[in-house]
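Box 4.2: Ligand-aware structure prediction
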Amino acid sequence: MFGWLVTRMLPIVPMGIVRAVASRYVAGEDLDSAREVVRRLAAEGYHATIDILGENAADDAHADETVQGYRQVLEMIDREHLPSNISVKPSHLGIRLHEERAERRLWDLVDDVSARGNFLRIDMEDSSLTDATLRLYRRARERSPQVGTVIQAYLRRTVEDARALAAEGANLRLCKGIYRESPSIAWQKRDDIRKSYLETARILLSAPGTYVAFATHDRVLLEQVPNIAAEMSVPPDRFEFQALLGVPVEDVLKPLVERGFKVRWYVPFGVEWYPYSVRRLKENPKMATYIVRHWFAR
Ligand SMILES: Cc1cc2nc3c(=O)[nH]c(=O)nc-3n(C[C@H](O)[C@H](O)[C@H](O)COP(=O)(O)OP(=O)(O)OC[C@H]3O[C@@H](n4cnc5c(N)ncnc54)[C@H](O)[C@@H]3O)c2cc1C
């Protein structure tokens, strides 16, 4: 309860203090900082997916800048031979402004990614964008197989979505979901979300054409997913594990790398770090409590 109250106070904490503590979740403000983090992770046997921080493009110019930024990221990944792909938010491409124009921006990136033999994952945002994002993903897949998207286990619809997407041989990241959603459309209790996560995992793994990225720091799920895959005789090249930069879960992920599984870190960078960092801090009331205490102590 105290942690919950504290997370509600974050918006009034001075930005400098939030920044100091939240910096663990973000590579830095520029591309060089992302490159350094990805290099360090690669040296430890990990893969990465680079995200340019930002969402809800304010206008077309902002959304066009997002495309230019990602083109530079793709160029850097090639030049430096980094084991990384990219993750892109539809609202950062302007989907809330105009769906067709956002789609054209996505095609620019999908074509670049395909030419380079790389991969683009379309992040999933709140439920107001679920249908539009799945539409975007399905059209992008007609253009290139080098595209994937995300489904969120907390949404009640996800098990049904997973059945349809599995039949299409989809490439999906499976996460719990980070946005606040109404109980009418989303499971709220941890156990219900876990149950949905595991049911969805089984549906996706049972369809031979799918590729699944299990994005979670939940130790129960990280223990069960490899067992389920083994029990279903799913080869390790059909799935991977993903984690967010800054979340202390290496003690579980490193052994997975040593067992031969692919593990990928989500590496965000950019100047628009605030909303992303606050989401991460809200997931971690201990950290939020630390920030608020530090603020009062000053
Ligand atoms: C690679 C990746 C990509 C993602 N992409 C999306 C997306 O596109 N759309 C979307 O809605 N959500 C996305 N998420 C977020 C996800 O939906 C969850 O909100 C987030 O991962 C927390 O859920 P969890 O599965 O880790 O389980 P939880 O039960 O929330 O966490 C399990 C444990 O992990 C630790 N932990 C979790 N978060 C933190 C933190 N911030 N700091 C410190 N410790 C922490 C805690 O010890 C916690 O007990 C993504 C997550 C990952 C890992």
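In the box above, the bound molecule is flavin-adenine dinucleotide. The chain has twelve helices and eight strands.
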